[in-house]
Each structure stands twice: as structure tokens, then as C-alpha cells.
Design a protein that fits this description.
Blueprint lengths: L2 H23 L8 H4 L5 H38 L2
Helix pairs in contact: 1-3
Length: 82
């Protein structure tokens, strides 16, 4: 394994963890899940929830795209640099 593969693998693991956290923090339509543990239905949380949910949704999309691109780049580097 080259240094590039090791660094790419570590970055992919960190991105996977970040994607899991971003998805777990999003509110479900029923209001259950991890957000229910934090008492997610207060007056102040209702106004902030839309902004936080949209931010988490965008973050999840960008992390997934970055994960895909990084995976392709690590694979391409493995194939072409050998």
C-alpha cells in the first residue's frame, strides 16, 4: 500500500463517520430519532429546526459527493500509479 492509499483510506473512514453523524442528527418526519432525545420540540427549536435540518441535508449531500469523488480518485491513483 502506498502513502496515498493509506491517507485516502483514513479520509474515507472520517467521511463515513461524518455522514453517519449528519444523517443521525436529521429529524425524521415523525419527530422520533436522536433529535427526540434532546427534547427537540421546544418553541425556539421549531424556528431553528428548519435551518438546522436544511444545513444538515446540504452537509450530507456534499459529504456524500466528496466521498464518491475521493473513492474514485484513490482508485484511479491505485490503478495508474502502479
Amino acid at each position: 500500500m502506498s502513502i496515498l492509499e493509506i491517507v485516502g483510506g483514513i479520509l474515507m473512514i472520517l467521511m463515513c463517520i461524518a455522514i453517519v453523524v449528519a444523517v443521525a442528527l436529521q429529524e425524521s418526519p415523525k419527530g422520533s430519532g436522536i433529535s427526540a432525545l434532546t427534547g427537540g420540540d421546544s418553541y425556539f427549536n421549531r424556528n431553528q429546526g428548519r435551518t438546522l435540518d436544511s444545513m444538515l441535508a446540504k452537509t450530507t449531500k456534499y459529504l456524500a459527493i466528496a466521498f464518491f469523488v475521493l473513492t474514485v480518485l484513490v482508485y484511479a491513483a491505485d490503478v495508474f500509479l502502479r
